[in-house]
Amino acid sequence: MPARRIVSEEPSRVRRRVAPRHRRSAHLVAVIVDDVAGPEFDGESFAEAYFAGETWSERTYTDCTFVDADLTDLSTRSVVFDGCDFTGANLADSTHRSSAFRNCTFRRAQLPGLTMTDCSLVGSVITESRTQRWKLVDCDLTLVSLAGLALVNADLTGCRLREANLGESDLTGCDLSGADLTSVRAIGAILRNATLLGARIDPVFWRQAKVEGARVDAHHAMEFAIAHGLRVGD
Fold first, then answer.
1. Are 10 and 50 in contact (CB under 8 A)?
2. Residue 184 neighbours by CB under 8 Å, 6+ apart
3. Are 209 and 193 within 8 A, CB to CB?
4. 73 three-state secondary structure
5. Which of 167, 169, 193, 194 is most buried (most C-beta within 10 Å)?
6. How far, in whole angstroms, is CA 154 from its chain's centroid?
7. Cα–Cα distance for residue pair 75/172, rounded to 1 Å
8. By C-alpha distance, which of 188, 187, 217 is closest to 200?
9. Contacts of 2 (CB under 8 A, 6+ apart)
């Protein structure tokens, strides 16, 4: 069925809708976005589109392009973006709950004030983007690339960062309480004064990251000492 264009009173805003189909979607950390029975968009281009301040729920975007789109203050719930391109897009102060951004690309994107709860970013790449004031709680960032980003004072409480790439990223003062950092790549990452209480961490992490002043559990301190060649209790 061909997509039907609906043009609002604002010339810059173009929406495309297709008939809803039943589709299974992403597995998240604390919830499952499943059986989304809303509109589906496949291979559509929303380049330079204006969606600022809108609220979306229960819809799926697959291999869609949002290059240079204005998504400021966008609010989503149970929305799935699969393989979408957000190069140059503005998602400043957007809020997302139980949504998924799987294998998406965010290059030169505006992401300050991004807020996510129970969301998934599995396999996505975020690079050359503004990332101030992040609050991501109980989100799945498995295999996500955050290399080289400035995430100073970000709230990543309870996030799953398994096999994520944090190389050369600045997470000074970041809250990673209860996070899963197993198999994370952290060469050159800065976590000074970060909070790592209750986090799951591999021994190699302590040799890769700069963690001066970080708040850690007693067993973390022991692992740090052993990773740096100290003999504890001998």
1. yes
2. 161, 162, 163, 164, 165, 166, 202, 205
3. no
4. coil
5. 194
6. 12
7. 28
8. 217
9. none
Q: Which two tokens stand for residue 149?
A: 């980003």
With a CB cutoff of 8 Å and minimum separation 6, the contacts of 37 are 20, 22, 23, 58
Measure the CA–CA gap between 79 and 121, rounded to whole angstroms: 12
- Residues 177-207 have pLDDT tens digits of 999 999 999 999 999 999 999 999 999 999 9
Q: Are strands 105-107 and 75-82 parallel, antiparallel or unpaired?
A: unpaired
Q: What is the pLDDT of residues 95-108, one digit of tens each?
A: 999 999 999 999 99
Please calculate the CA angle 108-76-146 and round it to the nearest 5 degrees. Answer: 35
Indicate the DSSP class of residue 170: B
Q: Determine the Cα–Cα distance for residues 87 and 54; give it in Å rounded to an integer.
A: 20
Q: Which tens digits make up the pLDDT trace of 22-43?
A: 333 333 333 444 455 689 999 9
Structure tokens at 203: 């021994």
Tokens of 190: 């800065």
CB of 96 within 8 A of CB of 115? yes
Closest C-alpha among 136, 148, 209 to residue 176: 136
Task: Report angle CA 103, 205, 118 to the nearest 5 degrees.
Answer: 40
- Please list the residues that pair with 32 across neighbouring strands: 27
Residue with tokens 């996500």: 144
Beta strand residue intervals within the chain, DSSP E: 4-7, 14-17, 40-42, 55-62, 75-82, 95-97, 100-102, 105-107, 115-117, 125-127, 135-137, 180-181, 200-201
